Automatic annotation (TrEMBL), chain A:
The chain crosses the membrane at residues 67-85, 124-146, 216-234, 466-488. This is Cytochrome c biogenesis protein. It is a multi-pass membrane protein. InterPro entries: Cyt_c_bgen_Ccs1/CcsB/ResB (IPR023494), ResB-like_domain (IPR007816). Signal peptide: none annotated. Residues 65-519 form the ResB-like domain. Keywords: Cytochrome c-type biogenesis, Membrane, Transmembrane, Transmembrane helix. It is found in: Membrane.
From TrEMBL, chain B:
The keyword Transmembrane applies. It is a multi-pass membrane protein. Keywords: Cytochrome c-type biogenesis, Membrane, Transmembrane, Transmembrane helix. It is found in: Membrane. The chain crosses the membrane at residues 6-24, 45-67, 79-98, 103-121, 141-163, 175-194, 258-276, 304-326, 338-355, 367-389. Its main location: membrane. It holds the Pfam family Cytochrom_C_asm. NCBIfam families: cytochr_II_ccsB. PANTHER family: CYTOCHROME B_B6 PROTEIN-RELATED (PTHR30071:SF1), HEME EXPORTER PROTEIN C (PTHR30071). This is C-type cytochrome biogenesis protein CcsB.
Length: 545, 395
């Protein structure tokens, strides 16, 4: 397409409405308007100029603010829908989601589940919405920022009369003592930190132009943020594991390639104490019963030394001792370990005494480590006990056979074989909590329960997130951009001599009240009249306000 | 210290009331005179009273902080009070820019209602559970509240705009919705009156009921139970027997409170209509007749522009930093988080709509009202109904 050459000599791209240099109106139909449309300086935007090919159409679709707002509003409504019932990740794991929603919320819950709202934020259509906002952000910014940049760069001090006349703030004064007034005005403009340019006795005073880039900076920030969010799905960038570790136990930390080990020395749970903690808390403590004060795991971090052969116990080197609390994770390399949950008093050891049922005479004690039972316990004097089977989390299955639900010793049961001098073949006994079965008839001996030993278990979250810095960068740039665009305005004041008159026009991208006040201070006692607000006049004339 | 703190809060509450009256006076006084001359004596006095009230509330905040050992923004009472205080603070700042007493007349009552509402929740100082023991919590909550308070100024400006601009000579959709906003404010007042009355009477009625897992539980009402819990059985003698009973998945006690608030709101509203003999919006219209609509529109827009970055920083960025530390991830789609995002998106949409001409003025004012409704929803409904990790578990 052809470029447009303005009378002032400046060559504008096709589609320009106001000459980039002098502001002359290049579009016929704009001339009839009382005020010029100053958005993007009347520059030539691709979306307003071309509409032929499919690329043009897509470009125009995504560069439209109207479309952008719709996308934002639809995302907003969709997000709200996701909060009606809890998302799947927040429902208690007592039953499958399929059942849970109907069970808890009736047919509405069922509908919610069937529409997929229980996992709304990772649904394809939600992600598509967010992606569309991202695309729209890129296209709408490109569509505007380049022409805007060109126009602001090319602008000349002397503006076309038609341009000045059609500014929202515009006024004409008779020119007397112009030299003197000009000096005063310039002085005051400088005081107000305007950047002043002069040409043929005309003035362009400008400040805060950089604020015009604010929206584009913040959009870039948003895009970076979204890209950071997407990287989450790249393998290796993100780790989210739970690690259960008992007191006294040393375990390899998942996802560290067997490099790091952790020992849990102790888990501590503290609650607020009416008598010991601040007195002002006592009322609250009384009302709510128990208030947790601290969850803490005292741990030691180890690093593997050298290469170890599979199966062999690795040699560990201590890295550091640490206390992991809520809000105070343990950090190493790119990992962080968080105190996220715990289990108190998990069964750890059980103690039995081999006892003669008739005489109650005991022939020695044995303590079974429930996480690592031995095969045989020798009690001396010819007495010993074999562990034939062990069910850490015992129940009877449908056919009545003992099975274990898990490897966690929630409900331990054993099949013991008791070997004694008088019963060298051994007697078999099935022992569970509060339950003993003697499958092969009456025994002489029994395993008498003597006591248990419990331990606390810490639930730690193992987290690695290599996207954090990108996300933070995006957030930072976004904040800089919004602050830039919100807390500064781009203000321009044009002063031009036209024959025997002084024409003053003012423009700001926002906060007209502030500009008006500023101009009134600047022009005070200079003999130049304050320009009038043509928008308000217009409203008054049409009886609007 | 705690007593002093409480008294300072009472004092500020009282001072805000006085300031509202003074602001009203300043507008009356202006009648007939030019509106351009700047604030009159009444307005100056009103402003000073507001500032003293604000200082007093700041005193409450600081003394309570010292007493508790942590910033008092950790339960619903404290947070809402802080919101009210920020609203007054935001108003003072905006007042210095635009010098419009009218804004005070509309902002202060909102702040007063908010503080009164806050006081209906348990007021004792609570110790912090482990997740809340972080400086980031305080940074996040205070910044978010300040941001919301500044955004709320646009609500006050929007109200002024609508009251002036809407044609009250015939009833229309617009007059209906404006009255709906008024009714919402009246209901809040109703809630405050009803709950403080029953709490002054020390009303307590205990129920046995069956919860949704089928287990028996106890529940204590502090207002007469119009709506009883599932299979409820009144234990306290000589108390009001429920009229209806709701299924177990509905929280009967909260529903009961809502019904009481709405019922008292209706009565109050009808009373007002009877006294005024016209819509509340119509009754307020003469008060705002001298205000310049363009100026009010700009105040509304400006406060969104000032508030939006602060809100984003506090409610999203600081929130994410804290969530990353406390909950291992910066974002988890918790209802409270989602509603902060919704608020953010809403005001982003607002700012974009302002780019096109047709959305200035009245439409903008409606948007400001909707924005405020979203924020209040986040404060009230999300905390009390859509319980998530954030929920302060108010009763
Ligand atoms: C959630 C997503 C978005 C956020 C948070 C956001 C934020 C912002 C902010 C804060 C401004 C500055 C407003 C002002 O200072 O008045 C702005 C301006 C703008 N935004 Fe967005 N935006 C988003 C999405 C979009 C989309 C999808 C579009 C595309 C259609 C878009 C187009 C624009 C335009 C054209 C401007 C004005 C630029 C100018 O004045 O030079 N924005 N945006």
């Amino acid at each position: 397409m052809k470029d447009v050459k303005c009378e002032c000599g400046h060559v504008n791209p096709h589609g320009t409405i106001l000459c980039e240099a002098c502001g002359r109106i290049l579009e016929e139909h704009e001339r009839e308007k009382q005020l010029v449309d100053m958005r993007y300086e009347g520059s030539a935007r691709r979306s307003q100029t071309y509409n032929k090919t499919i690329v043009d159409k897509i470009w125009n679709f995504f560069s439209s603010v109207k479309v952008g707002v719709w996308l934002i509003v639809i995302t907003l409504i969709a997000s709200a829908l996701g909060t009606i019932f809890p998302q799947e990740m927040y429902i208690p794991p007592v039953m499958p989601a399929e059942v849970y929603y109907e069970d808890q919320y009736g047919w509405l819950g069922k509908l919610y589940y069937e529409l997929g709202f229980h996992n709304l934020y990772s649904s394809w259509w939600y992600l598509l919405l967010v992606a569309s906002i991202g695309i729209s952000l890129v296209i709408c910014s490109l569509d505007r920022v380049i022409p805007l940049y060109r126009a602001l760069k090319a602008q000349r001090v002397t503006r076309h009369e038609g341009f000045l006349k059609r500014q929202r703030l515009f006024g004409i004064s008779a020119a007397e003592n112009l030299e003197e007034s000009y000096e005063k005005v310039k002085e005051k403009l400088r005081e107000k930190r305007y950047h002043i340019r002069e040409e043929d006795g005309n003035i362009l005073a400008e400040k805060g132009r950089f604020s015009r880039w604010g929206p584009y900076v913040n959009h870039i920030g948003l895009i970076i943020f979204l890209i950071g969010g997407m990287l989450r799905f790249v393998p290796g960038m993100y780790v989210d594991e739970v690690m259960w570790i008992r007191e006294g136990e040393t375990k390899v930390i998942p996802e560290t390639d067997g490099e790091y080990y952790l020992k849990n020395d102790q888990f501590i749970l503290e609650v607020y104490d009416k008598n010991k903690d601040k007195e002002v808390f006592s009322e609250a403590i009384e009302n709510s019963g128990m208030v947790a004060k601290n969850f803490q795991s005292d741990v030691t971090l180890y690093k593997k030394k050298g290469d170890s052969i599979a199966g062999e116990k690795p040699e560990l080197e201590k890295v550091k001792d640490d206390e992991i609390r809520v809000n105070e994770p343990l950090r190493f390399e790119n990992f962080a370990l968080y105190q996220s949950t715990y289990k108190l008093n998990e069964l750890n050891k059980m103690t039995f005494a081999l006892t003669n049922k008739q005489t109650n005479e005991e022939f020695g004690m044995l303590t079974v480590d429930l996480n690592d039972p031995k095969e045989k316990y020798d009690l001396g004097n010819g007495y010993s006990v074999e562990v034939v089977s062990y069910f850490p989390d015992f129940e009877f299955d449908e056919s009545g056979e003992p099975v274990t639900k898990s490897r966690i010793p929630n409900n331990p049961a054993f099949v013991f074989k008791m070997l004694t001098p008088d019963k060298p073949e051994g007697e078999v006994s099935f022992v569970a909590i509060r339950q003993t079965i003697e499958p092969f008839g009456d025994n002489t001996y029994k395993m008498a329960f003597k006591g248990i030993d419990t331990k606390n278990v810490s639930g730690l979250t193992v987290r690695k997130d290599l996207t954090l810095w990108i996300i933070s960068l995006g957030g930072l740039i976004f904040m800089i951009g919004v602050a830039q665009g919100s807390y500064w305005n781009h203000r321009r004041i044009w002063i031009r001599k036209v024959n025997d008159e002084v024409w003053v026009a003012g423009h700001t991208n926002k906060n007209w009240h502030g500009l008006k006040r500023e101009i009134s201070i600047i022009l005070e006692n200079t003999g130049i009249n304050e320009p009038e607000d043509q928008v308000q006049n217009e409203n008054k004339e049409s009886g609007g306000s | 210290m705690v007593t002093l703190s409480g008294n300072l809060l009472y004092a500020s509450f009282f001072l805000y009331l006085v300031a509202t009256v003074l602001f009203a006076g300043s507008i009356k006084d202006k009648k007939g005179k030019s509106a351009e001359k700047g604030p009159n004596k009444w307005a100056k006095l009103a402003l000073i009273t507001t500032i003293v009230g604000f200082a007093s509330q700041l005193g409450y905040f600081i003394t309570r902080w010292i007493a508790a050992g942590h910033a008092p923004v950790s339960n619903l009472f404290e947070f809402t009070t802080f919101f009210g205080m920020s609203l007054v603070g935001a108003f003072i700042v905006i007042y210095f820019i635009y010098k419009t007493p009218m804004l005070g007349l509309f902002t202060l009552p909102v702040a007063i209602l908010m503080i009164a509402y806050a006081s209906m929740f348990p007021r004792e100082i609570t110790p912090l559970i482990p997740a809340l023991q972080s400086d980031w919590l305080h940074i996040h909550v205070t910044t978010a509240a300040v941001g919301q308070a500044i955004l709320a100024i646009s609500f006050a400006a929007g109200l002024i705009y609508l009251i002036k601009a809407i044609d009250q000579s015939k009833s229309s959709k617009k007059t209906f919705w404006l009255e709906a906003i008024m009714f919402g404010l009246v209901c809040t007042l109703g809630f405050v009156i009803v709950s403080s009355t029953f709490s002054a009477m020390d009303y307590k009625a205990e129920f046995n009921w069956i919860d949704k897992t089928g287990t028996e539980a106890k529940l204590e009402y502090h207002m007469p139970a119009l709506v009883g819990p599932h299979k409820g059985e009144l234990l306290t003698a000589e108390k009001f027997e429920p009229i209806v009973e709701v299924p177990a998945i509905i929280n009967a006690k909260k529903l009961n409170t809502v019904i009481w608030s709405i019922a008292s709101g209706i009565i109050l509203y009808l009373l007002l209509r009877l006294i005024l003999r016209k819509r509340i919006g119509a009754a307020l219209q003469p008060i705002v007749k001298n205000i310049n609509l363009d100026l009010v529109d700009e105040i509304g827009y400006r406060s969104v522009l000032i508030g939006f970055p602060i809100f984003t920083l506090g409610a999203l960025i600081f929130a994410m930093i804290w969530a990353q530390i406390a909950w291992t991830r910066f974002w988890g789609w918790d209802p409270k988080e989602v509603w902060a995002l919704i608020t953010f998106l809403f005001y982003a949409a607002f700012l974009h709509l302002r780019l096109s001409k047709g959305w200035h003025g009245e439409k903008s004012a409606w948007l400001a009202v909707i924005g405020f409704v979203i924020m209040m929803f986040n404060l009230v409904a999300v905390n009390l109904v859509l319980a998530g990790l954030h929920s302060y578990a108010g009763s």
